[in-house]
Amino acid sequence: MSNAPPSLLTVRDLSVSFATTRGEAKVLRGVSLDMARGQIVGVVGESGSGKSTLATALLRLMPGNLLRMTGEMALDGTDLLTLSPARMRALRGARISMIFQDPMSALNPVFSIRTLMTDVQRAKTPGASRAQMHARAVAMLDKVGIPDAAERIRDYPHQFSGGMRQRIMIAMALLTEPDLLIADEPTTALDVTIEAQIVRLLEALRDNTGVSILFISHSLGLVAELCDQVVVMYAGTVVESGPADALFARPAHPYTQALLACEQSTRDQSDAKLVVIPGEVPDLTRVPTGCIFAGRCAHVMPECRAQVPALRSAGPGHRAACFLVQAPSQPPEAAP
Amino acid sequence: MTATLARIWGSGTGRLGLVLVVLVVLGALLAPLIAPHDPNQIAVMNRFSGPTLQNPLGTDQLGRDIFSRLLYGTRIALGVSILSILIAFVAGLLLGIAAAYLPPRLERVILIIFDIISSFPSLVLALAVVALLGPGLWKIILIVSVTLVPHFGRVARAQTLALKNSPFLEAERVLGASPARLVLVHIVPNVSGPLVVLASMDIPVVIAIEAGLSFLGVGVPPPSPSWGTLLNDGYAYLDQSIWMAVFAGLALTIATLGFTLFGEALRDAVDPKLRTEP
Amino acid sequence: MSDTMRYVISRIITTVLVLFGAMLVLFSLTLFVPGDPARVLLGPRASPEALQALSERMGLDLPIYAQVGRFFGNVLRGDLGVDVISGRPILNMVMDVLPYTIALTFAAIGIAVAIGVPLGCYAATHPNTVGDRITAVISVGFIAIPNFVVAIYLVLIFSIWLNWFPVLGVSRTGGFWDQLVRLVLPATSLALGWIGYIARLVRSSLLEVLNENFIRTSRAYGISENRIVYKYALKNAAIPTVAILGLGVGRLLGGAIFAEIIFARPGIGSLIYAAINTRNYPVVQAGVLVVVFLFVVTNLLVDLSYSKLDPRMSRRGGTGGRMP
User: Which residues neighbour B246 within 8 Å (Cβ) at sequence distance 6 or greater?
Assistant: First the structure.
C-alpha cells in the first residue's frame, strides 16, 4: 500500500442515520473507502445494505429525514462534509456526477434531451454559447453510442428505450468532465444484453477519459467483470474490501462467500433449488451488539455475538471484518 | 364518530370550521327564540337604521330588523342545501351503482348525461331554468340537486366498480347471495361513506348558489329573507345604508367559510384520497 | 400518431354530443314555459294578429319534432333568432358584449395565475412553515367566500370607503388605461377564489413532482435549486394546473354575471340578466347556449393542449393526465 497512487476519494468512518417512525435507523455505520484516480471500484451488497445511501451521501443528496451524518469524506483533499451547500452544488456535476438505477424515471419527461443537456452545462461553463453547448451535447451523445445523435437530441426521454436512456444519462453525467462518476445500479432495470453493453461502455469511457467510477451493484458477477477494487457491504457496514481478483479468488468473509455461492447457484442451475442465505437482514433501528452478520453466519462463534470484529488483513490490500480471517501464509505477491 | 370529530377538532382550521358550523346550525334551529323581532315586521319610520340596542345590526329599507332576517335566512340557506344535497345524494348513488352494473352501452349513456349536466356551469343552468320556468323554492332545490347528481354519481360508480370484483363480494356471490342483497348490504354502505364527505363539501357551494340566485332576483321569492335577497337589497340601497350589505355578506362568509373548513377537515379525517379541486 | 388522432377524434365526438345534449335541454325547457311564449314576450295588450305573426315566426305552431329540427338547424347555421324587443339578430347582441366578458374572464385568470402560482411555489418550497400555513388559510378563505360577496365588499371598500377606483361601468369612449382601471375590481372579485385554487394545486403538485426521481437527477448534476423549482418542476406541475384553468374559464364565464351586474358592466352575464328581468326568453336561451358553448369548447381545447405540455401524451393518449 506504500506506493499506492494518490487517493481521489477518501471516506473514513462515515455514519448516517435517518429518523423513521420506529426510531433512528443507522443506515451506515463506520464505512471507510479509498479510491484511486482512474479506478473502477465496485460496491456490492443486498438491497438494504446501505450501498445506495453511500452513493447519495457522497453527493450529499439526502432525503429530508436525515438525522445524523458523521465521519469524513474528501474528494482530492476537499472535505465534502463541511462544504457549504452552494459550493457542494457547484461541485455536483462538475467534479462528482451520478447515474441512477431507473433510467425510465430519472429523466424529466417534459423536456427534450437538448434542454436537459444544455442546462447541465450552463451552470458549469457560463461563457459557452448555445451553439457550443449544443455541439458538445451532440458529441457526447455520439460518444456514448446514441445513433443519429444530431437528430435525436431533439427527442424527449420517452422516445428512447431503457438502454438508450441510460446512455443519455451517462452522457449527461460526463458532459462536465467529472473526476468521479457514481453509478448506482445503472443496469438493474435493463435486460442482460443491454446490461453488457452499458458495462462495456463504462469501461471504455474510463479507458478514454480517465474518469473514476464508483460502481454500485447487487451483482457480484458484474462487479467481477468491471471493477478493479471491490467493497462488500452488509447492513450498513463494510465487511470486506480488496482487489477484485484476490477477493473473488479467496473471499474471506463468510457473507461474501455465501453471496458468491448464491450467485453461482443462480447461474448454474437456473431452475433447480437456489442457495439462499438463511435469515433476514437485521433491523437497522435495533442494531445488535457484536458482528452484524452473526445471526445468519454458518460459522458463528460465541465471541461474534460479544464484540464487533475489526477489519483484518486477508492479503495485500485485502481486508475482512471476521474473527476467522488470518493473513495468508505465503508472502505478498509482487505488485504488477 | 367521536374519533372523527376529535380529529377535526385537532386541526386548527377544522376547529374554526366546527365552531362556525355549530353557530350557523344553532342560529337556524333557535331563530324564533333568539330573533328580537318578527323578520317580516315592517317599521317604515325606522328604515335604514344603523346598529342600535333595539336593532343590533340595523334595519333595511322597510325598517325590518336585519339581525332577525339574517337569523331566519339561515333556515333558508341550510334548508335548501340539505334538501338538494339529499336528493342529489340518493339519485347519484342509485345512478352510479346502476352505471357500474348496467351493460357498457347503458353505462355510456349515463356518463354522457353526467357530462351534459356538468357542461353547464351550475349557476348558469339554474339561471336558465328559473328564468324560463319562473322562480320558486322547490324549483331551486330540484335544479340544484340535478346539477349535483354527476358529482355524486361519478364517485359512486368508481367506488362500486372497485368493490364489485373485490374478493369478499366474490365470496358472498359464491355462497349464493342475491344481487339485490349484495348491493343493499355491501355496496350501498361502502359507497355512501365517501359520498357523505362529498355532501359536506357541497354545502357551501349550494349556499352560494342559492344566495346567488336570490341575489339575481330569481331565487327564493320575497319576502322570505334569503341572504342573497338581503345582499341585493343592501347593494341597491348602498348609498342609504351600508349595514345590510355588510352583514348579509358577513353571514354568507361565516356560513360558507365554516362549512368549507369543516368539510375539508372531515375529508382529511375520513379519507384524504377524496381530495378534488375545485 | 394514430393514437393521438384517435384521442382527438373521440374528444371531439364527445364534445359534439355534449353540445347537442345541452341544446336539447335548452330547447325542452322552453316547452315548459308557463303561458303562451308569444304573449309573454309581447305583453298582455298585444293584438291577436301580432301574437299570431310572432307565433308563426317563432315556429310555435309547428309540431314539437319540427320545432326541434328548426331550433337545431338555426343554431347550426349560427342563427340564434331575432330579438323581438329591439328587432336585432340575437347573435349580434351577443357578439357586441362578448368581448367585455372575455376581457373580464382573462383578466381574472391572469390575476389568479400571477398571484396563485408564486404563492403555491412559495408554499411548496417552504412546506410546513408558518408561511405555508398562512398561505393555506388565505387560500381556503378565498375559495370559500362567494365571488358576489367579494365584489360587494370591494365596492364598499374601494369606491365608498376609500373612493379610489372609478368602479362602475366601462368607458365606451375612454382610452385603454381607463378601460384597464375599470377592469381591476371586477376581475379581482372573480380572481380571488381562483388564486386560492391555483395556490393549493400548484403547492400539492409541485411537492409531488419535487419527490420524483428526475428531480434528484437534476440535483445530482448540480443544477441550481431555483432552476429546478421554477423551470423543471413547475413545468411538470403546470399540467394539472392548466386543466383546472380550463375549467376556470368556463366557470368564470358563469360567475362573471355577478361582477357584471355589481360593477354595471356590459357583458354576456348582464345581457342574460336583463333578458330574465324582461322575460325575453329567446335571448336567455341564446345567451346560455353561448356560455355553454364557450365552456365546453374551452375544456376541449385545454384537453387537447395537454399533448403540447406533456410530450408523453402524444404517445399514450388521454390516460396520463393527472387531473386531481
Answer: B234, C156
Whether C255 is covered by a domain: the verdict is yes
pLDDT, tens digit (0-9, with 9 covering 90-100), for C118-162: 999 999 988 888 989 899 889 988 988 988 899 999 888 887 777
Residues near B222 by beta carbon (within 8 Å), at least 6 away in sequence: B229
Same domain for C261 and C186?
yes
Give Cα A229 distance to the centre of its chain.
11
Q: Which of A98-102, C202-206, C232-236, C310-314 has the lowest mean pLDDT?
A: C310-314
The whole-angstrom separation of Cα B195 and Cα A98 is 47
Chain C and chain A touch, per 3+ beta carbon pairs within 8 A = yes
Q: How far is A156 from chain C (nearest CA, A)?
A: 7
Residues of chain A short of pLDDT 70, as ranges, are: 1-6, 267-275, 327-336
Domain that holds residue C65: 3-76
pLDDT tens figures, B143-161: 889 989 998 999 899 888 8
Of C29, C149, C257, the CB nearest to B129: C29
Say if residue C131 is in the same domain as residue C195: yes
Asked if residue A311 lies in contact with residue A320, where contact means CB atoms within 8 angstroms, the answer is yes
Q: Hey, are the CB atoms on C231 and A106 less than 8 Å from each other?
A: no
CA angle C312-C318-C320, nearest 5°?
Answer: 50
User: CA–CA separation, C119 vs C225, rounded Å?
Assistant: 17
How many domains would you assign to chain B?
Answer: 1
Output the nine-digit C-alpha cell for A334. Answer: 509482487
A neighbour chains, 3+ CB pairs within 8 Å? C
Domains of chain C: total: 2
Chains B and A make contact, 3+ CB pairs within 8 Å: no
Give the DSSP H/E element, type plus range, for residue C196: helix C176-210
pLDDT in tens, C19-77: 888 888 888 877 777 666 677 667 767 777 777 777 777 777 777 777 788 788 888 87
> Could you list the residue range(s) of the whole structural domain that residue B78 is in?
2-39+57-270
What pLDDT, on the 0 to 100 scale, is given for residue A153? Answer: 92
Cβ(B261)–Cβ(C157) below 8 Å: no
- Sheet of A212-217: strand order equals A96-99, A180-184, A212-217, A40-44, A229-234, A237-243, A318-320, A312-315
What SS3 class is residue A67? strand
Q: B residues 179-218 near C, CB within 8 Å?
A: 204, 208, 211-212, 215-218
